[in-house]
Every structure is written in structure tokens, then in C-alpha cells.
Here is the input.
Amino acid sequence: MANFKTLDDLDVAGKRVLVRVDFNVPTKDGRVTDSTRIDRALATLGELSKKGAKVVILSHFGRPKGKPDPEMSLRPIAECLAERAGRTIAFADDCVGAAAKSVIDALPVGGFAVLENVRFHAEEENNDPAFAARLAELGDIYVNDAFSAAHRAHASTEGIAKILPSAAGRLMQAELDALSGALETPKHPVCAVIGGAKVSSKMDVLGHLVAKVDVMVIGGGMANTFLFAGGVGIGKSLCERDMADDARAIMDAAKASGCDIVLPIDAVVAKEFAENAASMAVGLGEVPDDAMILDIGPKSIAALNAKLAQVKTVLWNGPLGAFEIKPFDAGTNAVAKRVAELTTAGQLLSVAGGGDTVAALSNAGAADDFSYVSTAGGAFLEWIEGKTLPGVAALMAD
Here is the structure.
């Protein structure tokens, strides 16, 4: 990991600190229904407040298409922040100009202000330099605590960092440290658990990781495509048959780099995709023509858990089966719990994130015992694909 400044490198007393967070949280009827991202930002916001900064919060919310939309105002999010932080939160009706400046000027030392949705301005997503300069006028220091938005080169995530002294917030720092520990400076053997429905959406991930990890576990619908590519009958299972050549290319690349690809050795199948559908475990090659694979089987679970006991680092992205409906969450649950147990025992570092991963691990009751679980979706995926994230690159020291 290249060098980047953190809150430890800043003197914020009496300064206006612009903090880019990701408060793009789920809401219903004007109320926040999941405050996880808000809660995770409190460490950075609270630390800056205690150090005597005026804490000015920037975020996007939804896709307002570059113009104000009352349905996507950050005001309800500011109200939730006030509840979670147990303090008064000032709110500005715009993120630039006189409306924002007057609120910030009136802010006491240690106070919090939330500025209106940065995406109410089309210049935000265009990373317009003049708009970035207008944002920068409102602060003395910039802190990026929004790893989950760091794959976007927007004015509030990348442009502003070129203007003001910049650093990573505690959440951003934790994300970067966790990902560095899992991919850049890991303890070997390293195991990647990659699941999900489609190989086509994970080709870049698989291609990058086979050269980085020692073991690659492939599960979910993705595994069906690999099994099909190897000539295994998969009945009417979800499968991208047109990706068979790509799957074989991944297998060849893994062999060349010494990466052990691990596929299911048995499966739980059913004739319908429904909650508590009649199911049975079968060996590969025994999948009925009118059935579909919906989870890994007990032999696969046992083999994976034995494999996990031999590794030192686990990077997890995606479920191993149709975890949304029972009993097809059993495989993901069992393996996730094993990773959690080994992590708690101090035997391995476990980092997870992206897509349905957080929901799958939470469903298993294992998320809290992983070393780190990222709430970032696209940014996490792009990172493990080996891509440069503009919002991260902007924080790096020359």
C-alpha cells in the first residue's frame, strides 16, 4: 500500500474539515431503515469534533440526475445522524455557495453540519474543477471516509483532494489496511472464496486473483458454469454456457500460476426455486435433468472447512448457494461460521465484502467475527479486480 495521510497527521483544531462520507443509506417513508454506514462514520466524525474541528459533512444520496429532488434530500439522513450521534446537527440547503457558507460560519467548534446532496449539481459526477473549487472554498482540510464511493472520480471524492490538504478517515483507513493485509501483504496460504450467480460479472476478479492467491474456492451459480465447462451434467441449473471457454481459460491460468481451484464435489438440488422446496444432496454427475443446483452439499462443506484450517488469509466475495431461501443457505452458513471460528481463534485474517456478501454473512451469524467486513460494493469489487480507485489514488503521497 502506498503512503496516505490519516487523522493522526492532521492538526484540525479550529479548522473547517470537509468530510466525504457515504450516507447513501436505505430509507422508507422518509426514515433511515439501516444506519450501518452512518454508524461506521461516527468514529471519524467524533474524533474530528473532539480535536476541535468544525465538521462539515458531504455525501451523495440516490441518483437525482444533477438537479435538486426533494425525495433525495439528505435532511432525513441528517436527522438520523443526530439521533445516532446524540447531538444537534446543522443542515445546509445546498452544498456550495452562500447557503452552505452561512451554516458553516455559524457552526461552533466541534459542531457537525450536513450539506445537501452533492449530486444535486451535475458538476459533481462530471468532476468539474470549478465545482470542486467551490466545495474546497468551504473548508481548510479534506478527509475522505467514503471508500464505498472511492471508485468514482467525482468532484467530492477526487477533485477536491487535489485542492485541499487531504487524508483518509478512520473508516477509509480501516478498509485500506484490511484490503492491503488480504491482498498486498498477506500471510500465505491465501484463500479466496468467490461466489455469486454469474461468471460474467466476476471475470476480472477471477483473472486478477488467480495470480495472487494460493486457493480459489468458486461457488454459487458461478460454479455451475465451471462444472459445465468441465463436462459435468448440471440439469437445469443456472449456468452461463457461453462462458465455458472463459471458465476453462481461468482454470488454465490458475494451473500456470500454481493456484488451486476448488469446485463443489457434491450439491443440494431441487426441482423448484422456492422456500423449503423438496431437496436432496447428490454427487456430481448425479444431478437429475429436471433439477437445479442450489447449494453445495455436505461433502463439499467438509472439504472446504478442512481446507480453511490450512490457510492464513481468507478473502470472501459472494455466497456459495441461494442463501436467500432456506434450506439453500446451509452451505454458505456452515463455511462462513468456520471462517469466523478460525478468525476468533487467531488462526487467520478474514476480509469480506461486495454485493450480497454482507447479507449472506449476517444471515450466517458470522459477520461480526470476521476480521473486517466491507460495506462497499462496487469499490470493493474493483479493488479486488486490481483496478486503481480514483478516490484512493487522490489521497496517496507522491
